[in-house]
Amino acid sequence: MSKIKIMPCLDMKEGRVVKGVNFLELKDAGDPVEHALQYQIEGADELAMLDIAATLENRSTRLEWVKNVSKVIEIPLTVGGGISTLKDIGLTLKAGASKVSINSAAVENPDLVKEASNRCGSEKIIVAIDGCRNVNFPSGFEVVVAGGKKPAGMDAVAWAIECENLGAGAILLTSMDGDGTQDGYDLEFTRAISANLNIPVIASGGAGKLNDFYEAVDKGGAEILLAASVFHYRILGIKKVKEFLNKKGLDVYL
């Protein structure tokens, strides 16, 4: 396994960082540029910025947000939300993103993943998969889109495998059941995906304490650990998380 990375996430709405629980009850969590700069100083390996209202509002990612954040950091920036065409991907990368994350658009047009990875390189194309428990699907998890508002009628594991075959460089998982709860990553969901893939899995949704990060790797098989609430509200620091993982025997960038 590669070195484990820590990836804070800026969920964006109306120019501000927001955070909710189970994709609902969004609250203001600060200025994106201030957060981005602070997280780089603290030792974040990568940063994610997701325009969470873009798809619902039927628009592209606000590129000015990408420009404002990318110009103050040197670590890789993954941007998602409302990215639905090759043109969107190109403009987002030009605005300063290192990688793009596509979700609903990939479900609607799987060929977009293949075309994007062929044009830009698979390392720049991440497919985000939001999932929730549904016993009617073989893996027990169904894909949801449009910010968790719309069931996609697809098995999450089967979709992740298809995305890898189409050329995705990584899969960003978010468990709707765990999002913002600080009750721990959804290990069952994370493991179900990671056990069937060869590309990195980014665990997301629910980190609340130090051991949650360790279990996401040890039990979930994740290589990149995304978190928001615990970092935004200074419940945990990135350096403290890394030191804890190092003491537990995981290979991290200290």
What's a concise summary of this model?
This protein is an alpha/beta fold and 254 residues long. It has a single domain (5-247), classed as TIM Barrel (Alpha-Beta Barrel), CATH 3.20.20. It has helices spanning 32-42, 63-70, 86-94, 104-108, 111-120, 156-166, 187-194, 210-218, 229-232, 238-247; strands at 5-13, 16-21, 24-30, 47-51, 77-80, 99-102, 125-133, 141-145, 150-155, 170-175, 201-203, 224-227.
Structural commentary:
It is a single chain. Helices cover 33% and strands 27% of the residues. The chain is α/β, with parallel strands linked by helices. The protein has a single domain (5-247), classed as Aldolase class I (TIM Barrel, Alpha-Beta Barrel), CATH 3.20.20. Helix 8 crosses helix 10 (238-247). It is globular, with a radius of gyration of 16 Å. The two termini are 17 Å apart. The model has no long low-confidence stretch (mean pLDDT 90).
What is the count of distinct domains? 1
CATH architecture: Alpha-Beta Barrel
Structural class: alpha/beta
Low-confidence segments: none
**What is the fold-level CATH name, i.e. the topology?**
TIM Barrel
Our count of helices gives: 10
Helix content: 25-40%
